[in-house]
Amino acid sequence: MTMPAIIKVHEPENNRDFLDRCRQLPPFFVCTIASTETALIPGVSAAGASPELIPYTAAADVEAIVYGQALCLGKIPENPVGPPSPVIITMAALTELNAPFLVVDAGNAITPKVPMITAGRNPGLSITAPEAVVQVEELFVQGLIIGQQLALNRHTLVLGESVPGGTTTAMAVMEALGISALGKISGSMPGNNQSLKQELVCRAMREKGLKQGSSLDNPLNAVRFLGDPMQAVQAGIAMSASREIPVLLAGGTQMIAVAALIGALLNRPAALTAITTPGAKALLAEAVEARIENIAIATTAWVSEDKSADVRSLMQQLPQALPLYAAGLDFSTSCHKNLSLYEEGYVKEGVGAGAMALSAMLYHDLDNSRFLPLIEKVYEDIYLS
Predict the structure, then answer these.
(1) How much is the pTM?
(2) Which CATH fold topology does 6-384 show?
(3) Is 97 left (phi over 0), alpha (psi -120 to 50) or beta?
(4) Most exposed among 58, 88, 126, 169, judged by the fewest C-beta atoms under 10 Å?
């Protein structure tokens, strides 16, 4: 049976026109990059051909978007087994759509050689550190400012990320926000290494005296103690921009965690108004007015149909209901073995790949059979030329 181009994975009754509203405004892609030392724990991340290259992954991804090649490395990092970065999917979609894009640095260990907005300068520490993310309120406020300005462009905002190790921090943040996430996350390798990540998250929470739901009264504490810098910035951008335009959170597990943070903040407006970041009072008052009906999540079918995860359960537990869509990508017929490895559970998502593929399908009426050759062309230009 042929997979549909766009899969409606989870669609609340009161928000079934989201994609129709997106069609009214062209897409604008924003990729937020950040580092977390959690990614350096052996077994956590496969984002890079070797552990030494993991810190370069995000910088290389956004350099590829801008220049068609990675300047900080000889080539764009790939999974140790061979499948390429999902940035090739995003690049194919950006070219097809002729869509504008922007890079936001939330705190990346390696500074890419691209024009970008800097929201934070401190890379995230490990979730085993006393605080995983410093100055989390300031990062959130920077996101609010960026979102406010991007909303003026009158595009559908597609918010992607490149954060190696981010599915582990996502699991931890969701647990702290009351979502049963252990064993349900997707990731960049077959099986998602659930037991290692679960053990790590449980140990970090236990050592910090945290339990499931213990950060609900102050949701940003979930990021402070267990998250990564991207989560705070991305939540701020989405909340601020959603007051005016549709926002598509571009990713799988990591964006469900961002959605959980957004919903928890909207359920605890006092936690927002209590933030004392200088000059942010008016912004924080506006953040309370975020329109949740203007926010959805988009990922790939490799994530939504991942038998080693359960994203449908995660979506059902969100504090505020959101739609989840998936792009029906299928590389089983690719002439390149390294691309077909996606079908074996490698990589799956990242750098906004699912949402940008979905955008190409939504705005240009493409299906997998017509989009795959465009992706193969980018792959060949980057990895085989």
Answers:
(1) 0.97
(2) Rossmann fold (3.40.50)
(3) alpha
(4) 126
